[in-house]
């Protein structure tokens, strides 16, 4: 175990004192650092991660913006890398929520005091981060460790985010207005935003170094799960031996199964966040039930301007 590094900036309150700050969806304050917005409590952990994390060549770092399929990706990689052939009693996904097994670095590992000893984790180490590419540690960028990014179309992402933050508001608070959420999302002022810059950084890096960064899309995982999961396993250096193995992993990680596991129906992990909140509908195009044509067009327009010229269609 190691303690937080002692330096004059290690007081989180002091760190974000001079940074731009706004209230996001009536749920939390967010501050701007390195061009992105974060809950203030994440800044010190993100900075410590960036300055002190030593990547190993066989590490696997999963990355994503919020609500783009992180839980699914964590489950799949956990099965492929750590628990390929569980017997009845040893399915890690039955024992605990995927976020427990594959911690999000900035919101767990570097947030607990004393710090969890990352160097005791069995190889290959499997972590996750919602941080943008720009603030990843140099050692992650410069070693042979692998990065998997999962992206999702912005309309479903923002609806999923809207549901999630509304569900953690105090019970006496009204749901945050959707039109304001759309505006926050499009202006990039939201937790881990701007969404489009986040996606674009990983997309461009994955184009430059496809052997290092695998860029997955939630919609493709839904439409052709076998092909995408096969691609994922090959990228991780653990190709499946048979079609049956692929089917088994897909079943183990399916939303229906995970949602109905006891640990996810009744358990909770981080900071009193109930595990059930990570599993909602998982439907592509759910935004159609919420966005007006005007909102839809606004999102489409930003999507086109920000991503399409780089050959990315979400
Ligand atoms: P996080 O950022 O809080 O970790 P994340 O897992 O990225 O959340 O996204 C949650 C979304 O993934 C939810 O989408 P929805 O709100 O549109 O329904 C959730 O339902 C969906 N999801 C969670 N687990 C799975 C899964 N196993 N398969 C498909 N979708 C899933």
UniProtKB/TrEMBL annotation:
Domain of life: Eukaryota
Organism classification: Eukaryota, Viridiplantae, Streptophyta, Embryophyta, Tracheophyta
Similarity remark: Belongs to the sulfotransferase 1 family.
Protein transport is among the record's keywords: no
GO terms of molecular function: sulfotransferase activity
Enzyme class: transferase
EC number: 2.8.2.-
Name of this protein: Sulfotransferase
Sulfotransferase domain residues: 57-308
Protein keywords: Transferase
């Amino acid at each position: 175990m190691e303690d937080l590094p002692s330096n004059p900036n290690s007081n989180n309150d002091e760190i974000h004192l001079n940074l731009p700050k706004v209230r996001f969806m009536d749920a939390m304050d967010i501050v701007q650092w390195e061009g992105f917005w974060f809950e203030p409590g994440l800044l010190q952990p993100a900075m410590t991660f960036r300055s002190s994390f030593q990547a190993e060549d066989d590490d696997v770092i999963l990355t994503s913006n919020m609500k783009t399929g992180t839980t699914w990706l964590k489950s799949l990689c956990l099965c492929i890398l750590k628990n390929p052939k569980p017997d009845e009693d040893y399915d890690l996904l039955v024992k605990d929520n995927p976020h427990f097994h594959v911690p999000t670095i900035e919101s767990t590992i570097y947030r607990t005091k004393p710090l969890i000893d990352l160097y005791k984790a069995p190889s290959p180490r499997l972590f996750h981060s919602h941080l943008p590419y720009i603030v990843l540690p140099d050692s992650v960028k410069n070693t042979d460790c692998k990065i998997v990014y999962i992206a999702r179309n912005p309309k479903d992402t923002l609806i999923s985010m809207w549901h999630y933050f509304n569900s953690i508001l105090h019970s006496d608070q009204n749901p945050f207005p959707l039109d304001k959420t759309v505006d926050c999302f499009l202006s990039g002022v939201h937790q881990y935003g701007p969404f489009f810059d986040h996606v674009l950084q990983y997309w461009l890096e994955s184009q430059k170094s496809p052997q290092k960064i695998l860029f997955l899309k939630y919609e493709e995982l839904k439409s052709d799960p076998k092909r995408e999961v096969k691609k994922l396993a090959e990228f991780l250096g653990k190709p499946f031996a048979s079609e049956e193995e692929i089917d088994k992993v897909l079943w183990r990680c399916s939303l229906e199964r995970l949602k109905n596991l006891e640990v996810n129906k009744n358990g909770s992990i981080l900071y009193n966040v109930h595990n059930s909140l990570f599993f909602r509908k998982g439907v592509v195009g759910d935004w159609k039930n919420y966005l007006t044509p005007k909102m839809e067009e606004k999102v489409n327009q930003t999507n086109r301007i920000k991503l399409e010229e780089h050959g990315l269609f979400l």
